[in-house]
Every structure is written in C-alpha cells, then in structure tokens.
Specification:
Elements (H helix, E strand, L loop, with lengths): L1 H25 L7 H13 L4 H22 L7 H26 L12 H18 L6 H4 L21 H17 L2 H20 L1
C-alpha cells in the first residue's frame, strides 16, 4: 500500500509537471506558443488554411510520430522507461494540437444536416457510450505511461478482449461514426478518415 501510494504521488507530480510545461510551451500566450508556430508552419507548407486539409495533416503527422516511435521502442539503447518519456513528450503536444483544432473547426465545411430527433439523439448517445466503454479498458496502466513503473507486456484473456481483440480501434471507429453523422462537416469526415486509417494501421502494426 505504501509503495502504491508513493507511485501514485509520483505519477500525479510527474503528470502535473509535464502538462504544465507542455501548456506553457505549446499553448499559453505567456510562453513561446510553439503550438501556434507549428500550425502556421504546417499550413504554410500545405499552401492552404482549409480546415479539412489541416486536420487531416495534423492527424497524419501525429500518426507517423506516434506509431513510428512505438516501432523504435525495442531499439532505444536507453531502455523502455526512458523511451516512454520521449514517446509522451513527442505525442502529447501533437495530439493536443489536433484535438483543440478539431474542437474549434469541427462544424466547418458543412456537407449534410443530420436529423435532430429523440431517436437519433439516443442512437448517437448510445454509440458514444459504447465507444468509451471500449476505449477506457484498453488504456495501459497509467503508471507505466508516465514511466513510474517499468513497462510490461500485457496479454489479456478476460474482460473486453473476449468481445473484441481491438477495443481501442473499435471504440474509436464508433466515436468517429457518431460524431461524423451528427456534425456532417468536411472537417469531421477528414478527421475520421485519418483516425480510422491510423487505427487500422495500428492493428496491423501491433
């Protein structure tokens, strides 16, 4: 119990510190605003500020960094624990940029209007609920993500794995389906295409 409490405290302190540093460097106006510079550079390279193209590019870059670093983990001479630190510090800012951009632009480039009725609302709510029920248990031990405890190989034979071998991918696909149907925008279609494509690749990659 004492060891668990110590690790929980270490996790809380480490996570708070990382989030504070990332927020200062990436988002806060009082910092260097690297997130704004990243977005400006990306759109300048793309030659457009179209939100559908921008969100697809952001998620593609995240996918390359995220899955690329995962593939390189066995070859890091400094060990898996240090690799997780590099992995988190690289993936976190890119994911936060994509999430914040999607939230701010998700209704742009409208394509269709999804009927708003009690039945459709219930369908979307249930789809989102199932997606999170699948996403949550597929998350690794948070202490391992923060590199507080050594990473381990997990082979699940019970729980959600008895329903699907890829709960995170199925959960993400359901989330994309519900949001894309409701939003009916080019941005949501573009984001969902990138996210589903990344998860399909991750299934093969894993």
């Amino acid at each position: 119990t004492h060891t668990h409490n110590t690790r929980t405290l270490q996790f809380t302190v480490a996570t708070s510190l990382v989030l504070a540093v990332v927020s200062y460097l990436w988002f806060l106006p009082s910092g260097p605003e690297l997130g704004t510079q990243y977005l400006d550079t990306l759109q300048s390279s793309l030659g457009t500020t179209d939100p559908s193209i921008t969100i697809f590019a952001q998620l593609t870059i995240f996918a390359v960094v995220h899955s690329g670093l995962a593939a390189l983990r066995p070859y890091n001479p400094l060990g898996e624990r240090f690799h997780r630190v590099i992995f988190a510090l690289s993936s976190l800012p890119l994911s936060l940029s994509a999430i914040s951009y999607f939230v701010n632009h998700s209704h742009e480039n409208p394509l269709w209007t999804f009927p708003s009725t009690p039945l459709t609302h219930s369908f979307l709510f249930l789809t989102n609920l199932i997606s999170f029920l699948l996403l949550y248990p597929s998350t690794f031990n948070l202490l391992e993500i923060a590199a507080i405890t050594p990473p381990k190989l997990h082979l699940y034979q019970t729980g959600v794995i008895r329903i699907t071998r890829h709960p995170q991918a199925i959960g993400q696909i359901l989330w994309c389906l519900a949001h894309t149907l409701y939003l009916g925008s080019g941005v949501s279609v573009s984001a969902s295409a990138a996210l589903i494509g990344h998860h399909m690749f991750s299934i093969w990659h894993g």
